[in-house]
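[Meeting: bench + compute handoff]

Bench side (C.D.) handed over the final construct sequence. Compute side (W.E.) agreed to return the predicted structure before the next meeting so the bench team could plan truncations. Sequence as handed over:
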Amino acid sequence: MKKLSTLLTIAIIATIGCDKLMKDETILVDDPELQAFSEGLNTDVGLSKKSINALNDALNRHGKDGKHRRDPGFLWKVSAEMQGKLSNEEKEKLFGWMDDNNVPYLYGGGMDAKARGGPGGDRGGMDLRSVFAVLDEAQRESLKSIMDSYKSQMEEVMKKAKDGTIDREAAKAELEALEATMRAEIEALLTDEQRQKLEDMRADMKQKMEEMRQVAHDAMVSALEMTSDQESGLEIINNESGEAQKALIEKAKAEDMSREDLKDALKQLIADRNSKIEALFSERQIEIIKIPEKKAELTTVKIILKFDRP
């Protein structure tokens, strides 16, 4: 009887094939961040087992050994694969979630290789983490004292603004003056050698950021198979949208817009920009564009996991 059962098992495997049995198994993601991302997407959309396996397989291959943290084009590669593997119903659910949450398309996805600089931007700002790294122990103690002192002064100004002792404009002027004085004191701590080291660090960081943006941009162009006209068209849309956002912020400052009015105006800007992008790309390209916009959830997952670790 035992021999018969063994023969029957072999016959079943031979009939349906090992591949069929393997396909019924659920593929899990090796990296906990990506596994949580996959589970979150499944919760929002309700993926079929076939789609879950396809997603997890793509996440494993393109995100292997933490590559998703180093490769700016990681989600573009996953998205290009998933565009052809998600069902129409799954796509409708995912894209409906985006519409409900007014998610901007191609925001920070390498769409602008000439965008902002590294820490502190191109404004010559001071990155305190970099400053702290070049200081010796005595200087670090001095830096902490300076930061504590100005933190108390700034909190006092904000308290006055909150209780109406001073108006918003006066509070803003006081805070800006305190920040300028604080930066001058911190700058005075540095030796010439340390200043040069900071400049070298800023230049190196800026170059790395530019390289990462270019990699992300190239991955986007490849995944979408963009034409040169689409690249230039997207650049025009981004420039127009950026200028409109700046103008809106300035208007809000000048006219003292309410937070809700500003929020509604920004939402409209996003909707207008999304409409222009939809007109620029094909339906297939738009589907690929929409899938990696779930990356905001991946960022949230990273933060949660970071604070959950002992």
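W.E. noted at the follow-up: Residues 4-23, 109-124, 295-310 have pLDDT under 50 and may be disordered. C.D. will use this when planning the next construct.
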